[in-house]
Amino acid sequence: MSKKLVKSVFLFSSNTLLSRVLGFARDMILAQLFGASAGLDAFLVAFRIPNFMRRLFAEGAFSQAFIPVLVDYRQQHSEQKLRQFIADTSGSLALILLMIVILGILIAPVLIHIFAPGFTHSSNRYLLANAMLRITFPYILLISLVALSSALLNTYGSFGVPAFTPVLLNLSLISCALFLAPKLATHIVALAWGVLIAGILQCLFLLPFLARRKLLIRPRINFKNPGVRRVLTLMGPAIVGVSVAQINLLVDMLFASFLATGSVSWLYYSERLMMFPLGIFGVAIATVILPKLSQHAAVDDKKVYSQTLDWALRLLLLIGLPSVLGLFFLANQILATLFHYKQFNAHDVIMSGESLMAFAFGLQGMMMIKVLASGFYAHKNIKTPVKIAVIAMVSNIIFNIVLIIPLRHAGIALATSLSALLNSALLWWNLKRHDLYQATAGWKIYLSRLLVANVLLAIFLYLVRGSVSNWLIQTWHWRFTHLLLLLFGAIILYCAALWLLGLRFKHFSIPSK
Fold first, then answer.
1. Residues 6+ apart with CB under 8 A from 223
2. Are 260 and 82 in contact (CB under 8 A)?
3. What is the pLDDT of residues 256-285, one digit of tens each?
């Protein structure tokens, strides 16, 4: 089974990598065209609100609630009842989301006041954010239907196609920024239309793949279906439990709206870089193992369930720790290479670098949350993650209040990191306490190898990264060449160190079952 899981993770990660690379291309274009301006601050708020709800309902709570129930239906019910469950779920979800979209458009000014209270009523940022939110809000409905389709395909073993859909969002935003923006009186509004167009394209893209697997079923509204009620029951608490990282990021935006103009944008650019390894590795591993964990939980196979979770945690540490070091030591160098052009000046690089280093501190915790939360939801354990999520959210607010004055926007990022580490630690401890996870043999020697390899990596990055001032005055091709050489050298050093320390592929095998 480990080979199949690795293959699925690789396929998911490859498509996610393509999406992230295009995402960086998108952000480079946005940085050049709009910099860290009031207009971009407004768009980021207008996009962050529906994107936050998308992650909350679609990628977070819905996927975690829907997949375990879907697995149960596949194993315990007839094909007819399975298709009825899919039809009733899609129709009922669409109705709920349609009502949310209509309400959101009507109360857009209220939402701006709630999520960005620092935008004064008459400011340009507020007026632009209000107008663009009405355009972007329907994205919630469209992308949630994409999440439903993706969950179906993932459960039936197809991971590559759903992972490709974010590519369409990046292509749409790039196209609108380059070609639509010059035609509009207010250029930045083109990005809001790009979000809406992307949602439509993503929905249409998945339809042929659903049809090929005979999963393109006509939606029906039926809240009386036991499976639908079960999903909705799980979704409520799961909104808090599995999406706490997104809630914390939204709290960050709220606090940042009170800071100097550009603070929202600085946090956005640094968050985007932090999301690169999180999306490629953390989300990929969690997405791939959730159906497997649900299958083992459904037949009460505690041993293989625990071993699958153990495999995921080992893999996360192997990839996550060097990612943390790379983002921390090369924060300014990466930002200078990707974004230091035209409107995105040296000051923006330094400010974004401060928050990126703070985000890097909690990256491993954010990765762990994705997998550890899946461990609970595969068993349909809702109460424990919710309690932990509440603790993490309260701690994030407290950390924000304490750190925002001395560290400004970097304090906001550090607060998110600290709460993520606390969240992941509590999830891990409670999995152990509920006897859902037992560590396999060899963890001490494994952690020792990782420690030595990562210390060597940290020394290497510190010594060869060079000064920020030198990177800022160099040409773009010098920056790209040197960054690629740095990253390539770091990867070679890390892999060689682990190999010399005795780590082999066989150490990541789990029983085939």
1. 88, 92, 229, 232
2. no
3. 878 887 888 888 889 888 888 887 777 777
